[in-house]
Amino acid sequence: MAVITISRGSFSGGKMLAECLAEELGYRCIGREVIVEKAAAYGVTQEELRDTLDNPPSFLDRFKHKKYIYLTLIQAALMEEVRGGNAIYHGNAGHFLLRGVSHVLRARIIAPMEFRQAMVQDRIKLGPSEALAYIQKMDQDRCKWTQYLYGVACGEPDQYDLVLNLERMDIREACCMIAFAARQKCFEETPESRAAMEDLALASRVRASLIADPKTAQVEVEIAAHAGGVTLKGMAYTPEQIKEIQNLVRKIPGVHQVQAEMSVTTADG
After folding, report:
1. DSSP string of 76-145?
2. Is the residue at 51 inside a domain?
């Protein structure tokens, strides 16, 4: 019942690898478009989400609510897709969004630039130099997003359980290696890891529900969930808004108890 996340640079064969693993293991293969569609159900358009994903953050974005909204909705959508296990996600930063769950196998694939250029030339019909520039720009944008959203440098090996280089192996061989790892005991689902997944799913669902409600959409709430109990931390604008948040959270399926550790601030901070 493992979950596998595939991280890669642009045009490095990540989708092909995920599809190979899905066939080999009998798992579902989940890409970015599925998550965008699910996330949009909370009230943000798919176009807005794609625009957010495709464009690197500017300096001014650091002071906007967009980062919180993006993380909240994408994580909630991803959790609903993978919480049942037997899934492979090859979209944006799944290894960060599923942190703390031991039956998630975090893999990264690295491909030689010649391999990546050939894919760009074939798919987008660019010349060699244009293909190289295109890849470099996409890599820079992805690294900016990783730093912006998670505060870490992209591609650091300690973020993954496996890092495979396609320089001396092909997609099929990489697929077999990851499939072998996924079958090992250390990535088996346990009662503890299942509980961790359910807690993470509930916390992300609560956070997304608060974003989706106009009365609470502008409040950034830190959510901790454990066995149906939810703890809320953060700042609200009025005592009434704290009560509104508590009432909304109590209505969310899976929530059995709510504890608010929130304070009131002014609109200008």
Report:
1. HHHHHHHTTS-EEE-SS-HHHHTTT-TTEEEEEEE--HHHHHHHHHHHH---HHHHHHHHHHHHHHHHHH
2. yes
Domain CATH number, residue 245: 3.30.1340.30
Do 10 and 133 lie in one domain? The reply is yes
pLDDT of residue 263: 92
Q: Interior CA angle at 176 toward 175 and 181, to 5°?
A: 100
Inter-residue contact 200 to 79 (CB < 8 Å): yes
Amino acid 251: pLDDT: 95
Averaged pLDDT for residues 192-219: 93
Q: For position 62, what pLDDT does the model report? A: 54
Round to whole Å and give the CA distance between 219 and 254: 22
DSSP state of 209: H
Distance CA 38, CA 131 (A): 32
Residue 29 domain-assigned? yes
Q: Range of 10's domain?
A: 3-187
Q: Does residue 268 carry a pLDDT above 70?
A: no
The pLDDT, as a whole number, for residue 244 is 92
Q: What is the DSSP letter of 58?
A: P
